[in-house]
Input
Amino acid sequence: MAVYTFSPVSSGIDFISIPTSSTYPTSVEVSGWGFSLLASGASVQMKTFQPYVPVAPLPVVSTAQSGTVYNYITLAQMIQQVANRLYDPTMTFWTQVELGYVIDEALQTWNALTSYWRGDFTFSAQPGVTWYDLTSPSQMPNTLRSYNITDSALYTLMEYHLLEPAPTLNPINPWTGSLQFSANDLLNAVQRRRDDILSITGCTQSAFLAPASGSRVQLGDNVIDVRRIAYLPASVTGQPNVTLWPEDTWGEQSFNVDYTRTPLGSPSTYLLSTQPPLSFDTDVRAGFGGYFEMLTVNAGAALSVSAPSVLYIPDDWTHLLKWGALADLLSREWDAKDIPRADYCEKRYRLGLAAMLNAPALLAMRMNNVPLQIDSVRAADLYDAGWESTAAGAPTKCYHSGLNLIALATVPDAGAYSLTATVVQNAPLPANFTVPVQVGRDDLDAIIDYAQHLAAFKMGGEEFFQTMPLFQRFLKQAALYNGKLKEMAEYQIMLQDLSQRERDMNPVATPDSEQAATT
Output
Protein backbone atom coordinates (compact mmCIF):
# COMPACT_ATOMS: atom_id res chain seq x y z
CA MET A 1 0.00 0.00 0.00
CA ALA A 2 1.46 3.35 -1.02
CA VAL A 3 1.63 5.99 1.66
CA TYR A 4 1.70 9.63 0.69
CA THR A 5 2.74 12.24 3.18
CA PHE A 6 1.52 15.82 2.89
CA SER A 7 0.02 18.55 5.02
CA PRO A 8 -3.56 19.79 4.53
CA VAL A 9 -3.82 23.42 3.62
CA SER A 10 -6.68 24.32 5.91
CA SER A 11 -9.87 23.02 7.39
CA GLY A 12 -12.99 22.93 5.27
CA ILE A 13 -12.98 21.64 1.69
CA ASP A 14 -9.64 21.46 -0.12
CA PHE A 15 -8.45 19.41 -3.06
CA ILE A 16 -5.07 17.74 -3.57
CA SER A 17 -3.66 15.67 -6.45
CA ILE A 18 -1.77 12.44 -6.28
CA PRO A 19 0.81 11.89 -9.05
CA THR A 20 -0.12 9.49 -11.82
CA SER A 21 1.06 5.92 -11.31
CA SER A 22 0.06 2.44 -12.32
CA THR A 23 -1.05 1.68 -8.78
CA TYR A 24 -3.42 4.09 -7.09
CA PRO A 25 -3.59 4.13 -3.34
CA THR A 26 -6.50 2.32 -1.80
CA SER A 27 -6.35 4.27 1.42
CA VAL A 28 -4.80 7.43 2.69
CA GLU A 29 -4.23 8.17 6.33
CA VAL A 30 -3.36 11.51 7.75
CA SER A 31 -3.59 12.04 11.48
CA GLY A 32 -6.73 13.97 12.41
CA TRP A 33 -8.14 14.13 8.88
CA GLY A 34 -10.40 12.01 6.67
CA PHE A 35 -10.35 11.81 2.85
CA SER A 36 -12.54 10.51 0.04
CA LEU A 37 -11.01 9.41 -3.28
CA LEU A 38 -12.29 10.50 -6.66
CA ALA A 39 -10.51 9.17 -9.80
CA SER A 40 -10.32 11.75 -12.56
CA GLY A 41 -8.02 11.31 -15.57
CA ALA A 42 -4.44 11.13 -14.51
CA SER A 43 -5.00 12.08 -10.95
CA VAL A 44 -7.03 11.16 -7.91
CA GLN A 45 -8.66 13.97 -6.05
CA MET A 46 -9.15 13.66 -2.32
CA LYS A 47 -11.75 15.76 -0.49
CA THR A 48 -10.87 16.71 3.07
CA PHE A 49 -13.33 17.10 5.94
CA GLN A 50 -13.20 18.80 9.32
CA PRO A 51 -10.95 17.07 11.84
CA TYR A 52 -12.68 14.75 14.31
CA VAL A 53 -13.13 16.30 17.71
CA PRO A 54 -14.11 13.92 20.53
CA VAL A 55 -17.57 14.75 21.93
CA ALA A 56 -17.67 15.71 25.60
CA PRO A 57 -19.96 13.62 27.80
CA LEU A 58 -23.52 15.00 28.08
CA PRO A 59 -24.18 16.85 31.32
CA VAL A 60 -26.17 14.93 33.93
CA VAL A 61 -29.08 16.93 35.29
CA SER A 62 -31.25 16.14 38.27
CA THR A 63 -34.84 15.09 37.58
CA ALA A 64 -37.86 15.82 39.74
CA GLN A 65 -39.43 12.65 41.07
CA SER A 66 -42.80 14.05 42.10
CA GLY A 67 -44.56 17.24 43.16
CA THR A 68 -42.82 20.35 41.87
CA VAL A 69 -41.53 19.99 38.32
CA TYR A 70 -41.20 23.63 37.21
CA ASN A 71 -39.39 26.15 39.41
CA TYR A 72 -38.77 29.10 37.11
CA ILE A 73 -41.73 31.36 38.02
CA THR A 74 -43.76 31.80 41.19
CA LEU A 75 -47.40 32.78 41.41
CA ALA A 76 -46.42 36.25 42.63
CA GLN A 77 -44.14 36.74 39.63
CA MET A 78 -46.82 35.54 37.22
CA ILE A 79 -49.37 37.86 38.82
CA GLN A 80 -46.97 40.76 38.35
CA GLN A 81 -46.54 39.90 34.67
CA VAL A 82 -50.32 39.87 34.19
CA ALA A 83 -50.61 43.18 36.06
CA ASN A 84 -47.96 44.68 33.80
CA ARG A 85 -49.88 43.47 30.75
CA LEU A 86 -52.96 45.23 32.14
CA TYR A 87 -50.96 48.44 32.56
CA ASP A 88 -51.61 48.22 36.29
CA PRO A 89 -48.18 47.35 37.73
CA THR A 90 -49.08 48.65 41.20
CA MET A 91 -52.28 46.54 41.19
CA THR A 92 -54.58 49.46 41.80
CA PHE A 93 -57.49 48.30 39.64
CA TRP A 94 -56.81 44.55 39.94
CA THR A 95 -55.65 43.36 43.35
CA GLN A 96 -53.09 40.62 43.81
CA VAL A 97 -55.77 38.30 45.21
CA GLU A 98 -58.07 38.96 42.27
CA LEU A 99 -55.34 38.20 39.76
CA GLY A 100 -54.57 35.03 41.72
CA TYR A 101 -58.14 33.87 41.14
CA VAL A 102 -57.83 34.77 37.46
CA ILE A 103 -54.61 32.78 37.05
CA ASP A 104 -56.12 29.79 38.85
CA GLU A 105 -58.97 29.74 36.35
CA ALA A 106 -56.56 30.16 33.43
CA LEU A 107 -54.58 27.12 34.63
CA GLN A 108 -57.75 25.06 35.12
CA THR A 109 -59.07 25.99 31.69
CA TRP A 110 -55.70 25.07 30.17
CA ASN A 111 -55.83 21.65 31.82
CA ALA A 112 -59.44 21.11 30.76
CA LEU A 113 -58.56 21.74 27.12
CA THR A 114 -55.23 19.88 27.01
CA SER A 115 -55.19 17.20 29.77
CA TYR A 116 -51.83 18.80 30.59
CA TRP A 117 -51.38 17.37 34.08
CA ARG A 118 -51.49 13.59 34.26
CA GLY A 119 -50.56 11.38 37.17
CA ASP A 120 -50.86 8.03 38.96
CA PHE A 121 -52.42 7.28 42.31
CA THR A 122 -52.99 4.03 44.16
CA PHE A 123 -55.95 2.59 46.03
CA SER A 124 -56.89 -0.80 47.45
CA ALA A 125 -59.68 -3.04 46.22
CA GLN A 126 -62.29 -3.81 48.86
CA PRO A 127 -63.61 -7.40 49.14
CA GLY A 128 -67.03 -7.71 47.57
CA VAL A 129 -67.13 -4.10 46.33
CA THR A 130 -67.76 -3.67 42.61
CA TRP A 131 -68.16 0.09 42.18
CA TYR A 132 -65.57 2.75 42.97
CA ASP A 133 -65.58 6.53 42.58
CA LEU A 134 -62.38 8.08 41.24
CA THR A 135 -63.26 11.35 43.00
CA SER A 136 -64.01 9.88 46.45
CA PRO A 137 -61.37 10.46 49.16
CA SER A 138 -63.07 7.83 51.32
CA GLN A 139 -62.64 5.08 48.71
CA MET A 140 -59.45 6.50 47.22
CA PRO A 141 -57.53 8.59 49.77
CA ASN A 142 -54.79 9.34 47.22
CA THR A 143 -57.10 10.41 44.41
CA LEU A 144 -55.89 13.15 42.07
CA ARG A 145 -59.43 13.95 40.87
CA SER A 146 -61.27 14.89 44.08
CA TYR A 147 -63.91 17.62 44.00
CA ASN A 148 -62.49 20.70 45.76
CA ILE A 149 -63.97 23.80 44.13
CA THR A 150 -66.91 25.24 46.06
CA ASP A 151 -69.63 27.66 45.05
CA SER A 152 -68.02 30.32 47.29
CA ALA A 153 -64.92 30.35 45.09
CA LEU A 154 -67.11 30.95 42.04
CA TYR A 155 -69.04 33.76 43.74
CA THR A 156 -65.78 35.54 44.57
CA LEU A 157 -64.54 35.55 40.98
CA MET A 158 -68.00 36.42 39.65
CA GLU A 159 -68.12 39.45 41.95
CA TYR A 160 -64.72 40.56 40.70
CA HIS A 161 -65.98 40.24 37.11
CA LEU A 162 -69.11 42.28 37.96
CA LEU A 163 -67.20 45.03 39.80
CA GLU A 164 -68.84 44.07 43.08
CA PRO A 165 -67.07 43.81 46.45
CA ALA A 166 -65.62 40.32 46.75
CA PRO A 167 -64.85 39.19 50.31
CA THR A 168 -63.13 35.82 50.12
CA LEU A 169 -64.48 34.22 53.32
CA ASN A 170 -68.21 34.84 52.87
CA PRO A 171 -68.57 36.35 49.41
CA ILE A 172 -72.37 36.59 49.43
CA ASN A 173 -73.31 36.36 53.10
CA PRO A 174 -74.18 39.08 53.81
CA TRP A 175 -74.52 40.63 50.37
CA THR A 176 -72.42 43.79 50.26
CA GLY A 177 -72.74 44.51 46.56
CA SER A 178 -74.88 46.86 44.50
CA LEU A 179 -78.64 46.71 43.99
CA GLN A 180 -78.12 45.17 40.55
CA PHE A 181 -77.78 41.71 42.11
CA SER A 182 -78.52 39.84 45.31
CA ALA A 183 -76.96 36.82 47.01
CA ASN A 184 -79.82 34.61 45.82
CA ASP A 185 -79.33 35.79 42.23
CA LEU A 186 -75.78 34.42 42.19
CA LEU A 187 -76.66 31.28 44.15
CA ASN A 188 -79.63 30.33 41.96
CA ALA A 189 -77.75 31.03 38.72
CA VAL A 190 -74.89 28.74 39.78
CA GLN A 191 -77.25 26.02 41.00
CA ARG A 192 -79.28 25.96 37.78
CA ARG A 193 -76.23 25.81 35.54
CA ARG A 194 -74.60 23.12 37.70
CA ASP A 195 -77.57 20.80 37.20
CA ASP A 196 -77.69 21.65 33.49
CA ILE A 197 -74.04 20.59 33.10
CA LEU A 198 -74.70 17.35 34.97
CA SER A 199 -77.66 16.62 32.71
CA ILE A 200 -75.94 17.32 29.38
CA THR A 201 -72.58 15.71 30.11
CA GLY A 202 -73.39 13.00 32.69
CA CYS A 203 -69.92 13.72 34.08
CA THR A 204 -70.71 12.65 37.64
CA GLN A 205 -72.67 9.45 38.17
CA SER A 206 -73.84 7.60 41.26
CA ALA A 207 -74.31 3.89 41.95
CA PHE A 208 -77.00 2.96 44.47
CA LEU A 209 -79.52 0.24 45.30
CA ALA A 210 -83.32 0.50 45.25
CA PRO A 211 -85.48 -2.25 46.79
CA ALA A 212 -87.05 -4.55 44.18
CA SER A 213 -90.62 -4.69 45.47
CA GLY A 214 -92.28 -6.19 42.40
CA SER A 215 -94.13 -3.00 41.51
CA ARG A 216 -93.36 0.33 39.85
CA VAL A 217 -90.20 1.88 41.26
CA GLN A 218 -90.33 5.52 42.26
CA LEU A 219 -87.06 7.44 42.26
CA GLY A 220 -85.99 10.46 44.28
CA ASP A 221 -86.60 13.92 42.84
CA ASN A 222 -82.86 14.52 42.56
CA VAL A 223 -82.46 11.92 39.77
CA ILE A 224 -81.81 13.54 36.38
CA ASP A 225 -81.08 10.51 34.21
CA VAL A 226 -81.05 6.73 34.61
CA ARG A 227 -77.97 5.34 32.88
CA ARG A 228 -78.16 1.64 33.82
CA ILE A 229 -80.28 -0.79 35.83
CA ALA A 230 -79.44 -4.34 36.91
CA TYR A 231 -81.53 -6.71 38.98
CA LEU A 232 -79.72 -8.30 41.92
CA PRO A 233 -81.99 -11.01 43.38
CA ALA A 234 -81.70 -11.95 47.03
CA SER A 235 -78.66 -14.19 47.39
CA VAL A 236 -80.64 -16.96 49.12
CA THR A 237 -82.65 -17.55 45.93
CA GLY A 238 -79.59 -18.61 43.95
CA GLN A 239 -80.76 -16.50 40.98
CA PRO A 240 -78.07 -14.76 38.90
CA ASN A 241 -77.75 -11.00 38.61
CA VAL A 242 -79.42 -9.70 35.44
CA THR A 243 -78.69 -6.56 33.43
CA LEU A 244 -81.91 -4.82 32.34
CA TRP A 245 -82.14 -3.23 28.91
CA PRO A 246 -84.06 -0.04 28.14
CA GLU A 247 -87.30 -0.62 26.27
CA ASP A 248 -90.59 1.19 25.68
CA THR A 249 -94.26 0.29 25.76
CA TRP A 250 -94.53 -0.02 21.98
CA GLY A 251 -91.72 -2.56 21.87
CA GLU A 252 -93.15 -4.63 24.70
CA GLN A 253 -96.64 -4.63 23.18
CA SER A 254 -95.24 -5.59 19.77
CA PHE A 255 -92.92 -8.42 20.80
CA ASN A 256 -94.11 -9.45 24.26
CA VAL A 257 -97.82 -8.77 24.17
CA ASP A 258 -98.57 -10.55 27.46
CA TYR A 259 -95.81 -8.87 29.44
CA THR A 260 -98.30 -7.24 31.81
CA ARG A 261 -99.63 -10.68 32.82
CA THR A 262 -96.28 -12.46 33.14
CA PRO A 263 -95.83 -14.12 36.56
CA LEU A 264 -93.25 -12.79 38.98
CA GLY A 265 -89.70 -13.64 38.00
CA SER A 266 -86.49 -12.01 36.79
CA PRO A 267 -87.06 -8.95 34.57
CA SER A 268 -84.97 -8.31 31.47
CA THR A 269 -86.06 -4.80 30.41
CA TYR A 270 -87.11 -1.56 32.05
CA LEU A 271 -89.49 1.11 30.72
CA LEU A 272 -89.11 4.85 31.30
CA SER A 273 -90.49 6.76 28.34
CA THR A 274 -94.23 6.30 29.01
CA GLN A 275 -94.06 6.15 32.79
CA PRO A 276 -94.61 9.11 35.13
CA PRO A 277 -91.48 11.18 35.75
CA LEU A 278 -88.96 9.67 38.14
CA SER A 279 -90.34 6.15 37.89
CA PHE A 280 -89.84 2.97 35.86
CA ASP A 281 -91.54 -0.35 35.23
CA THR A 282 -90.05 -3.71 34.27
CA ASP A 283 -91.31 -6.24 31.74
CA VAL A 284 -91.51 -8.87 34.51
CA ARG A 285 -92.17 -7.89 38.08
CA ALA A 286 -89.24 -8.79 40.30
CA GLY A 287 -90.10 -11.99 42.13
CA PHE A 288 -86.92 -12.87 43.99
CA GLY A 289 -86.58 -9.91 46.32
CA GLY A 290 -83.22 -8.20 46.33
CA TYR A 291 -82.46 -4.85 44.76
CA PHE A 292 -82.25 -2.89 41.56
CA GLU A 293 -78.69 -1.66 41.14
CA MET A 294 -78.81 1.69 39.40
CA LEU A 295 -76.37 4.11 37.80
CA THR A 296 -77.90 7.57 37.70
CA VAL A 297 -76.99 11.18 37.10
CA ASN A 298 -78.24 13.16 40.08
CA ALA A 299 -78.78 16.85 40.65
CA GLY A 300 -76.54 18.43 43.24
CA ALA A 301 -77.70 19.38 46.70
CA ALA A 302 -79.33 22.74 47.26
CA LEU A 303 -76.76 25.51 47.69
CA SER A 304 -76.83 27.77 50.72
CA VAL A 305 -75.59 31.28 51.43
CA SER A 306 -74.52 30.19 54.92
CA ALA A 307 -71.94 27.56 53.99
CA PRO A 308 -69.84 26.67 50.92
CA SER A 309 -70.84 23.59 48.94
CA VAL A 310 -68.80 21.28 46.73
CA LEU A 311 -70.17 21.42 43.19
CA TYR A 312 -69.62 17.79 42.09
CA ILE A 313 -68.34 19.01 38.75
CA PRO A 314 -64.68 18.19 37.91
CA ASP A 315 -62.57 21.02 39.30
CA ASP A 316 -61.08 22.04 35.97
CA TRP A 317 -64.53 22.36 34.40
CA THR A 318 -66.17 24.51 37.08
CA HIS A 319 -65.39 27.60 35.00
CA LEU A 320 -68.35 26.52 32.83
CA LEU A 321 -70.60 27.15 35.81
CA LYS A 322 -69.24 30.65 36.13
CA TRP A 323 -69.82 31.50 32.48
CA GLY A 324 -73.33 30.06 32.47
CA ALA A 325 -74.27 31.88 35.68
CA LEU A 326 -72.86 35.16 34.38
CA ALA A 327 -74.89 34.73 31.19
CA ASP A 328 -78.02 34.54 33.34
CA LEU A 329 -77.06 37.49 35.54
CA LEU A 330 -76.18 39.76 32.63
CA SER A 331 -79.45 38.91 30.87
CA ARG A 332 -81.55 40.30 33.73
CA GLU A 333 -83.74 43.28 33.10
CA TRP A 334 -82.84 46.65 34.58
CA ASP A 335 -79.33 48.02 35.19
CA ALA A 336 -77.58 44.63 35.17
CA LYS A 337 -78.49 43.95 31.55
CA ASP A 338 -75.44 43.69 29.29
CA ILE A 339 -76.38 41.74 26.18
CA PRO A 340 -72.94 41.69 24.48
CA ARG A 341 -71.21 40.21 27.52
CA ALA A 342 -74.17 37.91 28.26
CA ASP A 343 -73.89 36.57 24.70
CA TYR A 344 -70.13 36.07 25.15
CA CYS A 345 -70.70 34.18 28.43
CA GLU A 346 -73.34 31.93 26.88
CA LYS A 347 -71.05 31.09 23.97
CA ARG A 348 -68.22 30.27 26.37
CA TYR A 349 -70.62 28.02 28.29
CA ARG A 350 -71.72 26.14 25.15
CA LEU A 351 -68.15 25.89 23.85
CA GLY A 352 -67.10 24.40 27.17
CA LEU A 353 -69.94 21.88 27.15
CA ALA A 354 -68.90 20.66 23.70
CA ALA A 355 -65.31 20.23 24.90
CA MET A 356 -66.39 18.52 28.13
CA LEU A 357 -68.34 15.91 26.18
CA ASN A 358 -64.96 14.69 24.90
CA ALA A 359 -62.99 15.12 28.13
CA PRO A 360 -60.74 12.25 29.30
CA ALA A 361 -60.43 11.18 32.93
CA LEU A 362 -59.13 7.61 33.30
CA LEU A 363 -56.21 6.74 31.02
CA ALA A 364 -54.95 3.40 32.39
CA MET A 365 -55.38 1.00 35.29
CA ARG A 366 -53.03 -1.58 36.82
CA MET A 367 -53.57 -4.16 39.53
CA ASN A 368 -50.45 -5.25 41.39
CA ASN A 369 -48.66 -3.58 38.48
CA VAL A 370 -50.41 -5.75 35.87
CA PRO A 371 -52.43 -3.73 33.31
CA LEU A 372 -56.21 -4.14 33.35
CA GLN A 373 -58.38 -3.87 30.27
CA ILE A 374 -60.57 -0.75 30.38
CA ASP A 375 -63.93 -0.58 28.62
CA SER A 376 -67.37 0.93 29.07
CA VAL A 377 -70.02 -0.50 31.36
CA ARG A 378 -72.33 -0.91 28.36
CA ALA A 379 -69.63 -2.95 26.58
CA ALA A 380 -69.40 -5.16 29.67
CA ASP A 381 -73.15 -5.78 29.61
CA LEU A 382 -73.06 -6.55 25.89
CA TYR A 383 -69.93 -8.65 25.57
CA ASP A 384 -69.20 -9.88 29.09
CA ALA A 385 -72.72 -10.95 30.02
CA GLY A 386 -73.11 -11.96 33.63
CA TRP A 387 -69.95 -10.17 34.69
CA GLU A 388 -71.56 -9.18 37.99
CA SER A 389 -72.52 -12.79 38.74
CA THR A 390 -69.09 -14.39 38.51
CA ALA A 391 -67.44 -15.70 41.67
CA ALA A 392 -65.21 -13.25 43.52
CA GLY A 393 -61.57 -13.35 42.57
CA ALA A 394 -58.73 -11.24 41.23
CA PRO A 395 -60.03 -8.41 39.00
CA THR A 396 -58.91 -8.54 35.38
CA LYS A 397 -61.02 -5.74 33.86
CA CYS A 398 -62.07 -2.21 34.67
CA TYR A 399 -65.38 -0.82 33.39
CA HIS A 400 -65.89 2.94 33.26
CA SER A 401 -68.94 5.24 33.25
CA GLY A 402 -69.08 9.00 33.45
CA LEU A 403 -65.88 10.76 34.45
CA ASN A 404 -65.89 9.27 37.93
CA LEU A 405 -67.29 5.73 38.22
CA ILE A 406 -65.40 2.49 37.65
CA ALA A 407 -66.33 -1.16 38.28
CA LEU A 408 -63.85 -3.97 38.87
CA ALA A 409 -64.54 -7.34 37.27
CA THR A 410 -64.49 -9.81 38.65
CA VAL A 411 -65.60 -8.48 42.01
CA PRO A 412 -62.56 -8.57 44.32
CA ASP A 413 -62.22 -11.36 46.87
CA ALA A 414 -60.29 -11.04 50.13
CA GLY A 415 -56.92 -10.98 48.37
CA ALA A 416 -54.52 -8.05 48.59
CA TYR A 417 -55.07 -6.03 45.43
CA SER A 418 -53.30 -2.71 45.01
CA LEU A 419 -54.56 -0.73 42.03
CA THR A 420 -52.87 2.14 40.24
CA ALA A 421 -55.00 4.56 38.25
CA THR A 422 -53.47 6.82 35.61
CA VAL A 423 -55.71 9.85 35.27
CA VAL A 424 -55.95 13.39 34.03
CA GLN A 425 -55.48 15.00 37.42
CA ASN A 426 -56.76 18.30 38.74
CA ALA A 427 -54.64 21.27 37.76
CA PRO A 428 -52.08 21.85 40.57
CA LEU A 429 -52.95 25.36 41.74
CA PRO A 430 -50.30 27.27 43.72
CA ALA A 431 -51.13 27.22 47.43
CA ASN A 432 -49.64 30.68 48.03
CA PHE A 433 -47.86 33.48 46.21
CA THR A 434 -44.37 32.00 46.69
CA VAL A 435 -45.15 28.59 45.16
CA PRO A 436 -43.90 27.94 41.59
CA VAL A 437 -46.53 27.70 38.86
CA GLN A 438 -46.46 24.24 37.29
CA VAL A 439 -46.52 25.03 33.59
CA GLY A 440 -43.88 24.83 30.87
CA ARG A 441 -42.07 27.88 29.55
CA ASP A 442 -43.39 27.31 26.04
CA ASP A 443 -47.03 27.55 27.17
CA LEU A 444 -46.67 30.31 29.75
CA ASP A 445 -47.20 33.22 27.36
CA ALA A 446 -50.51 31.86 26.05
CA ILE A 447 -51.77 31.30 29.60
CA ILE A 448 -50.82 34.87 30.53
CA ASP A 449 -52.68 36.01 27.41
CA TYR A 450 -55.78 34.26 28.64
CA ALA A 451 -55.37 35.59 32.19
CA GLN A 452 -55.24 39.12 30.76
CA HIS A 453 -58.39 38.39 28.75
CA LEU A 454 -60.20 37.10 31.85
CA ALA A 455 -59.13 40.07 33.95
CA ALA A 456 -60.32 42.46 31.23
CA PHE A 457 -63.86 41.06 31.41
CA LYS A 458 -64.82 43.55 34.10
CA MET A 459 -63.90 46.47 31.82
CA GLY A 460 -66.76 45.53 29.52
CA GLY A 461 -67.53 47.23 26.24
CA GLU A 462 -65.06 47.56 23.41
CA GLU A 463 -62.07 47.43 25.74
CA PHE A 464 -62.93 43.88 26.73
CA PHE A 465 -63.77 42.66 23.25
CA GLN A 466 -60.48 44.01 21.92
CA THR A 467 -58.78 41.30 24.01
CA MET A 468 -60.47 38.50 22.04
CA PRO A 469 -57.29 37.81 20.01
CA LEU A 470 -55.62 36.84 23.31
CA PHE A 471 -58.31 34.22 23.93
CA GLN A 472 -57.99 32.96 20.37
CA ARG A 473 -54.22 32.61 20.75
CA PHE A 474 -54.79 30.64 23.96
CA LEU A 475 -57.05 28.23 22.06
CA LYS A 476 -54.47 27.87 19.28
CA GLN A 477 -51.75 27.04 21.79
CA ALA A 478 -54.01 24.43 23.39
CA ALA A 479 -54.62 22.91 19.95
CA LEU A 480 -50.86 22.86 19.31
CA TYR A 481 -50.21 21.06 22.59
CA ASN A 482 -52.91 18.49 21.81
CA GLY A 483 -51.31 17.99 18.40
CA LYS A 484 -47.97 17.29 20.07
CA LEU A 485 -49.57 14.67 22.31
CA LYS A 486 -51.14 12.92 19.34
CA GLU A 487 -47.88 12.96 17.42
CA MET A 488 -45.76 11.54 20.24
CA ALA A 489 -48.20 8.68 20.94
CA GLU A 490 -49.81 6.74 18.12
CA TYR A 491 -52.77 5.62 20.23
CA GLN A 492 -53.31 8.82 22.20
CA ILE A 493 -56.82 9.24 20.78
CA MET A 494 -57.75 5.77 21.99
CA LEU A 495 -56.49 6.52 25.49
CA GLN A 496 -58.30 9.83 25.73
CA ASP A 497 -61.53 8.27 24.49
CA LEU A 498 -61.72 5.67 27.28
CA SER A 499 -63.81 7.93 29.51
CA GLN A 500 -66.27 8.69 26.69
CA ARG A 501 -66.72 5.12 25.49
CA GLU A 502 -69.77 4.66 27.71
CA ARG A 503 -71.43 7.75 26.24
CA ASP A 504 -70.57 6.56 22.72
CA MET A 505 -72.17 3.14 23.31
CA ASN A 506 -74.97 4.36 25.59
CA PRO A 507 -75.78 7.93 24.46
CA VAL A 508 -77.48 10.39 26.76
CA ALA A 509 -79.40 11.94 23.86
CA THR A 510 -79.63 11.83 20.07
CA PRO A 511 -76.69 13.42 18.25
CA ASP A 512 -78.74 16.32 16.85
CA SER A 513 -80.23 17.24 20.24
CA GLU A 514 -76.82 17.00 21.86
CA GLN A 515 -75.38 19.27 19.21
CA ALA A 516 -78.21 21.76 19.72
CA ALA A 517 -77.44 21.85 23.45
CA THR A 518 -73.78 22.66 22.89
CA THR A 519 -73.97 25.25 20.10
